[in-house]
Specification:
15% strand
Length: 267
C-alpha cells in the first residue's frame, strides 16, 4: 500500500512535543523526509531518534521561528539535506493570557511574533523553493480561538485569527503556482501545556463537557488532518481553515445547557 507522503520533504516547527511531534512522526511514517524543528533541540533529537528507529528519515533543526535568519536556515537545511521542500507545517506557537488592560506590550509582541510572524517567515523562505518544483503545501496550526473571542485571551485569539486570514491571503497569491495553503483549527488537545492548564479537575471537566464528543482531542488526531492536507489527496483544497474540535464550536450556547425537555420526550 503506497504511503501518502512518499518521496516528499517536509519541515515541521514546534516539533519537539504535542501536535508537532505527532505530526513529524506521522509524516515520516507516511514516507516523508522530515526536518524536526524546534527551539528545544535536545527534545527534538528524541523525536528524530524515534523516527530513525522506525526506519524513517529525519534531521533536527534548532529554530527561533520569530527570527528571519533562523527560519531561512531551517528551510535551507531541508533543501540541502532532502533536495527541496514540499511541505511546511507551521505548528510552533505560544500563549499569554490576559485582557487588553492586563496584558503587557512585551507579551503582545511575543505572541504575535511566534504565532503570526513565523507563518509569514516560513512562507517567505519556503515558497521560492516550492515554486521551482511547481508544487507545495503550507499548513499552519491556527485554533478555534481564532474563530471566536475567548475570555482573557485577547492576543492569542487575535493571533490565531490572523493566522487564518494570512492563510487565505497566501493561498490566493500562490494557488496558480501549485502551492496550497491551509490552516487547522484544533479544539482542546491533550498536549503538555494543556495538561498543565487543566490540572484542576473541575476546570478539566468543564472543558471536556464543552466538546460535544465529551472528551479532549489527541495530538495524533490533528496529525492525521495535517498529513491529509500535505498529501495529494487534498490536491483541490486551499485557503481553508479546517476545524478539528470534537464539536466544540458546532453547538450554540443553548447546547451547553441541560436539555430542557421532559425525559419522556427525549429521543
Amino acid at each position: 500500500m503506497s504511503k501518502l507522503l512518499e518521496g516528499k520533504a517536509a519541515v515541521v516547527t514546534g516539533a519537539a512535543s504535542g501536535i508537532g511531534a505527532a505530526s513529524a512522526i506521522r509524516f515520516a511514517a507516511e514516507g516523508a523526509s522530515v526536518v524536526v524543528a524546534d527551539i528545544r533541540p535536545a527534545k527534538a533529537e528524541a523525536i528524530v531518534a524515534d523516527i530513525v528507529r522506525g526506519g524513517g528519515r529525519a534531521a533536527v533543526c534548532e529554530v527561533d521561528v520569530q527570527n528571519p535568519e533562523s527560519v531561512e536556515r531551517m528551510i535551507a537545511l531541508c533543501v540541502r539535506l532532502f533536495g527541496g521542500i514540499d511541505v511546511l507545517y507551521n505548528n510552533a506557537g505560544t500563549l499569554r493570557q490576559g485582557t487588553a488592560v492586563e496584558l503587557s506590550v512585551k507579551d503582545w509582541d511575543l505572541v504575535m511574533a511566534v504565532n503570526v510572524r513565523s507563518v509569514f517567515l516560513g512562507a517567505k523562505y519556503a515558497i521560492p523553493h516550492m515554486r521551482e518544483r511547481g508544487r507545495g503545501s503550507i499548513i499552519s496550526t491556527a485554533s478555534v480561538s481564532g474563530l471566536q473571542g475567548d475570555a482573557g485571551s485577547v492576543v492569542y485569539s487575535a493571533s490565531k485569527a490572523a493566522v487564518i486570514n494570512l492563510t487565505r491571503a497566501l493561498s490566493t497569491d500562490h494557488a496558480a503556482e501549485g502551492i496550497r495553503v491551509n490552516a487547522i483549527c484544533p479544539g482542546t488537545i491533550e498536549t503538555p501545556p494543556v495538561a498543565r492548564a487543566l490540572a484542576d479537575e473541575h476546570v478539566r471537566s468543564a472543558y471536556v463537557q464543552a466538546h460535544t464528543m465529551q472528551r479532549l482531542g489527541r495530538p495524533e488526531e490533528i496529525a492525521s488532518v495535517a498529513v491529509w492536507l500535505a498529501s495529494d489527496e487534498a490536491s483541490f483544497v486551499t485557503g481553508e481553515a479546517i476545524v478539528v474540535d470534537g464539536g466544540f464550536t458546532s453547538q450554540s450556547p443553548v447546547g451547553r445547557l441541560p436539555d430542557p425537555r421532559p425525559t419522556h420526550l427525549r429521543s
